[in-house]
Amino acid sequence: MNPTKEFRDYLISQGAALVGIGDLTAVPSSDYPVGIAVAIPLPKHVIKGLQLAPTREYYELYNSLSDKLNTIVTAGAKYLTDKGYHAYARTTDQKMTDSDNCIPLSHQTIATRAGLGWIGKNNRLVTPQYGSAVRISSLLTDAPLTCDAPVTRSQCGACHACVRYCPAHALKNTLWRPGIPCENIIAISTCHKKCREIMQKSTGIDADLCGKCFAVCTYTKQYLKQCRDV
Predict the structure, then answer these.
(1) CA 20 to 30 Å from 229, out of 43, 77, 131, 179?
(2) Is residue 113 situated within a structural domain?
(3) Contact 214, 133 (CB under 8 A)
(4) DSSP per residue, 98-154
(5) What is the residue-averaged pLDDT of the chain?
(6) Residue 164's domain spans which residues?
(7) pTM score, two decimals?
(8) Number of domains the chain contains
């Protein structure tokens, strides 16, 4: 069997809904030549609830999906190391931010290089299949996998639904392009502060989660209209 297909199928068997493999050789912040992005969509009923306010169910799902993604990328890294390659699972306890609260090599960057989608005006990955209602993770490797074509252009166009409905007014209506600093798209501290405020008010939970920006995304709404669910 094709080694790349075999690995992709393995990650899907572990629970990934989308898998992309990206060439990172031109990405300065990567110490590995290949990045693998995995994504899991949120259930439709949870997304619909977020159009009004953050919910306890979303908070619990956010954490459970983080655990699931950690398991998937850890399993993927072990799969590759067992075959003699170097691999690094970028689990939730491994992320580091810079002075602007941006991640130098984010899951989103790897996902765009791996062809899963583009970064929306909400600073989230937007996929053709599920809009921006996905949780993502990634792993890095030196395994000689066949890479997918990268996404290099935003498909948001003139749409600014996320900008209009952002309760923090933190989104800057900026079209993403590769290499653009995240602070050009979003005022992260402003976003986190407001998210914590409305999550506390809505659920009593002290967490900086909101979800409205991806719940109102045009591409997310296209996913909501589909018959299938996750």
Answers:
(1) 77
(2) yes
(3) yes
(4) -TTS--TT-HHHHHHHTTS-EE-TTSSEEBTTTBT-EEEEEEEE-S-PPPPPPP-S-
(5) 94
(6) 3-145+152-225
(7) 0.92
(8) 1
